[in-house]
Amino acid sequence: MSSMHPVQVIAVTGGKGGVGKTNVSVNLCMALADLGRRVMLMDADLGLANVDVLLGLKPQKTLADVIAGECELRDVLLQGPGGIRIVPAASGTQAMVSLSPMEHAGLIQAFSDISDNVDVLVVDTAAGIGDSVISFVRAAQEVLLVVCDEPTSITDAYALIKLLNRDYGIMRFRVLANMVHSPQEGRNLFAKLTKVTDRFLDVALQYVGAVPYDEVVRKAVQKQKAVYEAFPRSKAALAFKALAQKVDAWPLPANPRGHLEFFVERLVHAPAGTPL
């Protein structure tokens, strides 16, 4: 491994709230850590933090302190389950919801200081299509779109794809169906989405599979644990394991794309032909 290997940055998003983005983010991180990856999870729902709540962690400092210039990003890192590290957001802080483009850029650049021992950064975005969602998705290399079987989930996912594609030129989206009652339901959801994107947009959607609806997910949430840890043999945990194996095989970014990205200096300095 060259010391400057690129970091794989995956934004988990979905447009609509309640589709299970945070659950997907946390469990995907744990499954990737199980594959030997050094994983960091950023709670990018800046004003309504929920990763720490989901995992029963109590952060002393959060991204709000970093933005205020009161500490460095490395000072807010929390040790999470399974060896993952977590960058916690603030809870109930209105100012964090309306950061300026400069503040978003500063936050993205702050990650460069902690890139020395990270292989994967998973960014759990807020719901909706606000500025912070757009900033963080654009700064990632992979967009993992979480959808579930509700009409609003498909329309909101489409709205997000359309915005990112038309205004920011993002072409590639990976789609995960969450809380499905059968594998077929997941494929049907993906078909519904591609039906509208194929007609109106020039994008490539890739289906990465489904996470089944599983009663134990709620039990895990009540225990403030990831289902992957609390019920490792459950249907949901096994689906996250399969998802992590797919994600692990995605190609690493090789060059910057001309706008602000997480860990961009790792893409610039890796000389061509360096074994990654």
Tell me the Rg in angstroms. Answer: 18 Å
Q: Report the CATH superfamily of the domain at 8-39 and 51-57 and 119-255.
A: P-loop containing nucleotide triphosphate hydrolases
Number of separate helices = 12
| DSSP strand tally | 8
Q: Which CATH first-tier class of the domain at 8-39 and 51-57 and 119-255 would you pick?
A: Alpha Beta
Mean pLDDT across residues: 91
In terms of per-residue confidence, which ranges show pLDDT below 50 for 5 or more consecutive residues?
270-276
How many strands, what sense, and barrel or not for the largest sheet? 8 strands, mixed
The separation of the N and C termini measures 6 Å
| Percent range for β-strand residues | 15-25%
Q: Which structural category fits the helices and strands?
A: alpha/beta
CATH topology of the domain at 8-39 and 51-57 and 119-255: Rossmann fold
| Quaternary form | single chain
What best-fitting shape do the alpha-carbon axes yield? globular
CATH architecture of the domain at 8-39 and 51-57 and 119-255: 3-Layer(aba) Sandwich
Helix content: 40-55%
SSE sequence, one letter per element: EHEHHEEHHEHEHEHEHHHH
- In the sheet with the most strands, the strands line up as 3-4-2-5-1-6-7-8
GO molecular function, one term: ATP binding
InterPro entries: FlhG (IPR033875), MinD_FleN (IPR025501), P-loop_NTPase (IPR027417), ParA/MinD_ATPase (IPR050625), YlxH/NBP35 (IPR033756)
GO cellular component, one term: cytoplasmic side of plasma membrane
Keywords: ATP-binding, Cell projection, Cilium, Flagellum, Nucleotide-binding
